[in-house]
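Bit of a strange request maybe. I'm writing a small parser for structure token strings and I need a real example to test against, not something I typed by hand. Could someone generate the tokens for this chain?
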Amino acid sequence: MREDIVILGGGLAGSEAAWQAASGGANVTLYEMRPKESTKAHKTDFLAELVCSNSLGSTDNISAPGLLKEEMRRLNSLILHVADEVRVPAGAALAVDRDQFSQKITQTLESHPNIRILREEIAEIPPDGVCIVATGPLTSDKLAASIQRITNSQHLHFFDAISPIIDADSINMDVVFRASRYDKGGGDYLNCPMDKVAFDTFYAAMMAAEKVQPKDFEKATPYFESCLPIEVMAERGPQTMLFGPMKPVGLDDPRTGRWPYAVVQLRAENCHGTCYNIVGFQTKLTYGEQKRVFRLIPGLEQAEFLRYGSVHRNTFINSPALLQSTLQLKVRSTAFFAGQLVGVEGYTESAAMGGLAGINAARGLNDLPLVTPPPTSAHGALLHYITTTPSAHFQPINTNFGLFPPLSARVQDKEEKRAQIVRRALEDFDGWRKQSGLS
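Reply from user aminoacidic:
Good idea to test on real output. This should exercise your parser:
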């Protein structure tokens, strides 16, 4: 078989990339190192193995994850097709029989006339030809070293230290105040002021909160002192927090004219100001405890979390510095990156990026223009985030409505607002598919 495209990695992203590229007429060679080389997370030799939960997330038709799934279905996604076939009861979530899921995907790809699967490890990104790198968060050390050489080592990360992201509409603006420290930068930050009683209550809750236990392969990975989990700072004593991310110096509360006892700062996560990052609050608290404890922060009593914080072993590139909106490397247009490696979180998000990489790789071979979905769609909003976020603050993220451009008119009702975002997304996405010849 003539080899047009090489794909590295047989996870969700690599499998979807292979399917989309082959469906576009390309001859694909998919490399998967298992079973010759194992990982510390996988249990089988099947492609697209779900190594954590068996849930692909919400199917609610007015949720961002549900919208992303619908867009993938409209692109004839293999991952979504098989997931729908082997679905198990899980309420509004798309949960699957994980063994049937990976087996069916493996069988489908093995039987495709345009796909060849080779079970061996690739230690280098091929210097010639079209390649899609989709090796995921557990990329082998050898291939990671190759990625470092091509992308510059400072743009490859091996540890996630992620702070929570809050929906801007859920922040109590009557409590927080806008200011930058010592007025440098104007009102760039939202500041949640705490008096001593509020701080002591928050500190006690933090110390008592339940934490996620590290996996075996994460235990040997040390924390960076510059991005310690907030609860580790708390364990070192309250002054560590007060002289760290919660320091009040230089922040005059306009209602008192004085510095608060402590401050939690929120930084805009996008140019639309629809979501805010809790600065310096990377954490290993469980999701339930994050919701409980962080809602003790003044102004965040009703906070809606678009992304919870985490600290875990991961491998991802600094996509805003490295990738075009077509998922091509800026320094090598024949190399595409996809999946969690580009800084998206979640099964569906990883597969979606793999699908786009496969579509564009095949289009390039056919001398067709490469495509980027509209930013009003779930695919396009994710792509816009991973390719335009300031690289100094880039961290992986799940799809959420905070990534979407705001509606042209303000809508007060939350459900109606989301319904309008979904309607706009699907209309724009279908128009893009028709224009691109993908419908």
